[in-house]
Amino acid sequence: MAVDLTQDGELAVLTLNRPEALNALSFQILRDIGEAFDKVAHMDVRALLITGAGDKAFCAGADIKELRNRPLMDQKTGAELGQSVFAKLDRLPVASVALVGGYAFGGGSELAMACTFRLAAPNAVFGLPEVKLGLIPGYGGTQRLPRLVGQGRALEIIKTGRNVRAEEAERIGLVNAVVEGDLMQAGREIAGKFTRYSLPVLDFARRAVTRAGDTTLEAGLEIEADLSTLAYRLTDAEEGMAAFEEKRKAEFKDG
Ligand code: HXC
């Protein structure tokens, strides 16, 4: 299998496992990733880590050899497939963390950008080099990159197709952190910072924050007020505030 899904305690771990092609995304692999996300939604886990096999790449993007041999109509289907698979991450009940070591180009960068968090090894190299192929990003890059780094920088990165190394990626907000050492361990640690909180509450926070990039302040504040009220009504809020008063750790029940 070119996509492995395993469980490590309270974490699901998805590994792109096609190192001989730098984990490039064939249409079949994209479909397998989609199926894996559907499975994660039903697993008893509290976060999803996504990694690439081998030490050279997280993912070198869409499989160019396969793309080249597709009729034009299929290219549209390809973009729709990639977009719909990566959009599933937004609907997962748990947060996702991309662990990027080596190359994350094209669809590989786009997969990382669709995750809730991104950690990079010092050798990580991001890029949306589609213009070099006579293409533009098709798996969400033109929409998610500007939301992460701003429109000016996104346009420059997409129009030049240049590489963005780990240090710059961190500086411009494309990744949350660059970590030395074991990336998987760093993934476990960042997940450990939120896995004990209430899943629905974390999801309300994500939904409110992600709307900040695409709505007016007034509408966004209304969304915040609605979600904040929903959170307040959960027993987890009762438990969290009671635990504060009783000077103990809250025991959330995800409801
Ligand atoms: C298919 C790929 C691939 C890809 C690498 N390989 N990237 N195969 N699709 N995206 C294959 C190579 O052909 C080669 O196999 C093997 O992986 C190792 O790659 P090398 O090129 O020999 O490695 P290296 O010299 O170290 O260069 C690494 C690299 C380079 C800089 C990452 O491979 C590269 O530029 N890859 C393409 C990156 C890219 O343009 N991605 C965006 C794709 S478009 P063989 O069998 O030849 O030895 C996209 C969105 C499209 O993602 C949207 C459409 C709707």
Describe this structure in words.
Belongs to the enoyl-CoA hydratase/isomerase family. One of its GO terms (molecular function) is enoyl-CoA hydratase activity. It is an enzyme of class 4 (lyase). This protein has 255 residues and is of the alpha/beta class. The protein has 2 domains: 3-192, Alpha-Beta Complex (2-enoyl-CoA Hydratase, Chain A, domain 1); 199-245. The chain is built from 11 helices and 10 strands. It has helices at 27-40, 64-68, 72-91, 107-114, 141-149, 151-160, 166-171, 183-192, 199-211, 217-233, 235-245, and strands at residues 3-8, 11-16, 47-52, 57-59, 95-100, 103-105, 117-120, 125-127, 164-165, 177-178. A hairpin with a 2-residue loop joins strand 1 (3-8) and strand 2 (11-16). Helix 9 (199-211) runs antiparallel to helix 10 (217-233). The protein is globular and about 60 Å long. The two termini are 36 Å apart. Bound molecules: hexanoyl-coenzyme A (HXC). Hexanoyl-coenzyme A binds next to helix 2, helix 3 and strand 6.
How does the major sheet shape up?
6 strands, mixed
Which ions and ligands are bound to the chains?
Answer: hexanoyl-coenzyme A
CATH class of the largest domain, named Alpha Beta
The spatial strand order of the largest sheet comes to 1-2-3-5-7-10
Q: Which residues form runs of ≥5 with pLDDT under 50?
A: none
The structure class reads alpha/beta
- What would the principal axes of the Cα set say about the shape? globular
Task: Give the terminus-to-terminus CA distance.
Answer: 36 Å
Give the number of DSSP strands: 10
Name the CATH superfamily assignment of the largest domain: 2-enoyl-CoA Hydratase, Chain A, domain 1
Radius of gyration from the alpha-carbon trace, in angstroms:
19 Å
Number of folding domains? Answer: 2
CATH architecture of the largest domain: Alpha-Beta Complex
Q: What's the order of the H and E elements?
A: EEHEEHHEEHEEHHEHEHHHH
Q: Mean pLDDT, nearest integer? A: 96
The total count of helices amounts to 11
The helix fraction, in percent, is 40-55%
**CATH T-level fold name of the largest domain:** 2-enoyl-CoA Hydratase, Chain A, domain 1
Question: DSSP strand (E) fraction?
Answer: 15-25%
